[in-house]
């Protein structure tokens, strides 16, 4: 049994999609990050970094319970555990390369682009330009790579596609103000539409909506999501 700790944001969405694609038995545990539930001692025992997603595998190696945190680590762990969505052995170097591209580039720059356009105080034009343009550059890299391809790695749908989908799904927030945010990236747009049309994707979205999370962006939310902004200067 996989105990899945989540909030309906891009990184947990990847794990939700993997779980729905594979049909792994799971128990969902909502963590309302807008209320600060990620900072509790109970959750820190699951992920010391205080972020979602995280999982507890109650039937880990040698039958013991194990924790796994960070979306990329979870996808690799579950892919190896099930033997599913990992592509061909010959494609392993390519799979790892694209997973790290997403984990260290596409994800962080997309996240910061969203933050500085939607959450940060006005007047930080340099930061907005920097992160948005870098996110768009990562879109362009994927777009060029996907020309003539159906999937990111080899000829099979893999955890690389699942990982990228989690963030490309937020293109409208990354490219704020664009009516069709993926229009300049036609190969990426085609790929995203194909992944988004999979039956498991609809089930993953339903999983993420299975709990009523706090939606008010008040001072409690800001302190919960960005605690270091309020920490005393050391």
UniProtKB/TrEMBL annotation:
Organism whose genome encodes this protein: Pseudorhodoferax aquiterrae
Domain GST N-terminal intervals: 1-86
Gene3D superfamilies according to UniProt: 1.20.1050.10, Glutaredoxin (3.40.30.10)
Gene assigned in the entry: yfcG
Database matches in PANTHER family: DISULFIDE-BOND OXIDOREDUCTASE YFCG, GLUTATHIONE S-TRANSFERASE-RELATED
Domain GST C-terminal: start-end pairs: 88-225
Domain of life where this protein originates: Bacteria
Listed name of the protein: Glutathione S-transferase
Matches recorded under InterPro entries: Glutathione-S-Trfase_C-like, Glutathione-S-Trfase_C_sf, Glutathione_S-Trfase, Glutathione_S-Trfase_N, Thioredoxin-like_sf
